[in-house]
Every structure is written in C-alpha cells, then in structure tokens.
Amino acid sequence: MLVSNLEIVPGKRIQKHLGLVQGSSVRAKHVGRDFMAGLKNIFGGELKGYTELLQESRQEAYDRMLQQAESIGANAVLNIRFSTSSIAAGAAELFAYGTAVIME
Amino acid sequence: MIDLIIFLILLALGYGFGRLAESRHYTSIREREKELNVIPAIASRIPPHGRPDFDIHLVTGSVVISIDYFKRFIAGLRNLLGGRISAYETLLDRARREALLRMKAEARDLGAEMVFNIKLETASIHKGRGGSIGSVEVLAYGTAFIPHQTS
C-alpha cells in the first residue's frame, strides 16, 4: 500500500479514484500518566507518556483508514491529513483521512 | 498562609526547573538541527519533476510538551494586560522544532533524501484551571522521498 500526503505521485498515474477513506480513534487519559503530567505541569518539559499515547492512537486511526482502503480494493491512499480534536476533558479524538485510489 | 507558601514554592520550582529544561532542550534542538540539515523539509505541494526514481513514504513526528508553573502564572498575568506572551511562544517554537526533528529522524532512518509537503498540526491537550493551556501537541508529517537502491 502506497501512502502519502502528496496529491500526485511522481512517475505514477492514478487509474481510478475510489473516494474518501477515514479512520478515527478516541482515547482517554490514564490516571498514572495524568499524575506524571501533573508533575510536569509544574516543572515543564516533554510529557513522554502523552506523546506515546497519542502516537499509539494516531497509529490506530491510520491503520483503520488503511483497512478501509484495502477493503474497497485500493492500492494507494493519497493526500492524507491528520487532525486532532479534544472531545471532552481528558479525551481526544485522533482522525486520519485520505483519498483511496488505484494506481497503475 | 500555607497556600501562599505552597504557591511560592511551586513558582520557584517552576522557574528553576523550567528554565533548566528549556535551555537544555534548545541546546539539543540546535545540535540535532545541524545534524539533520542534510534532509531538507520542503513545504511545497508539488513534487520534483523528471525524477521518478523515488520511493515515497509517509513520515510523522510528534511531541507533547508542557509549560512550567512559573510561565503559566506569568501568562495568566499577561491575560489581564494583553500583549505578547513570550512564554507560550517559546513553548510552541520548541514543540514545532522538536516534532520536525523527529519527523526528519524517521526520514533519515529510511534513507530519504528530502521530505515534501510538510504539514504541521497543533492541538492543546491539557487545559488547566480557567482554560489556560497546559500542554500542546504538535504533529509534523510529510512525504519522504527515498532514492531507489541501485544495485
């Protein structure tokens, strides 16, 4: 599966557009991590736990998007965008979307 | 009285450790930026023409970074007076540069020559009391161009 956030891929032609594919994942914070985050809020610095947490859930959203693309028979996803929105206090939605295409 | 003492201690801790963390972070950012300068990150949407001998790969880098207690307090004061909040400016600057560096590091591990169509996305994660920003997440992503291994 070819995945890119470009609209066109050099040297390859798009045969067919299959439309939008998307994947999302909503995650809540973790008490232990939240405690560490509380400490870091005093001292400043990177919140490694959160970085990992968000990376994991973004990966999940991304994988779901790719699954959807595979299920409709695409062999590439182009023009991928990521977005993050906080839904409620302590929960965030990670969202990935792109255009599924068939490439030659 | 006790509350005031705790508050002052927190301010002092935030000031001391926050400054230390920031200057250390900036030193490491500068070093790594020099190292990774060989991979240009290009914000252009249009890929280079006439050279189709590249593999492409999506690369991402992200970081969640928190502001310290002292700076948050200063920023709170600024909210009354208005004007530039340099405390948040450095926070966001550090987060963006760190995210870009992580993205470039991933590109380097893949053997990429350059990274195209860079997008940066910022989200505030942890809101403190009164809706003040506690920490921000920055995600940087782009398409790495990896030259074909010619045997």
Explain the overall architecture.
- A four-stranded mixed sheet of chain A has the order 1-4-5-2.
- In chain A, a hairpin with a 2-residue loop joins β4 and β5 (91-103).
- The mean pLDDT of chain A is 86.
- Chain A is elongated, with a radius of gyration of 17 Å.
- Chain A is an alpha+beta fold.
- The two termini of chain A are 12 Å apart.
- Chain A has helices spanning 31-43, 48-71, and strands spanning 2-3, 14-28, 45-46, 76-88, 91-103.
- The relative contact order of chain A is 0.34.
- Chain B has 151 residues and is an alpha+beta fold.
- Chain B has a three-stranded antiparallel sheet with strand order 1-3-2.
- In chain B, a hairpin with a 5-residue loop joins β2 and β3 (133-147).
- In chain B, α1 packs parallel to α3 (86-109).
- The mean pLDDT of chain B is 85.
- The chains are: A alpha+beta (104), B alpha+beta (151).
Question: Which keywords apply here?
Answer:
heterodimer; A: 104 residues; alpha+beta; 4-stranded mixed β-sheet; 2 helices; 43% strand; elongated; B: 151 residues; 3 helices; 3 strands
Strand-helix topology:
The complex is a heterodimer of chains A (about 100) and B (about 150).
Chain A: E1 2-3, E2 14-28, H1 31-43, E3 45-46, H2 48-71, E4 76-88, E5 91-103
Parallel strand pairs in A: 1-4
Antiparallel strand pairs in A: 2-5, 4-5
Chain B: H1 2-36, E1 54-66, H2 69-81, H3 86-109, E2 114-127, E3 133-147
Antiparallel strand pairs in B: 1-3, 2-3
Helix pairs in contact in B: 1-2, 1-3
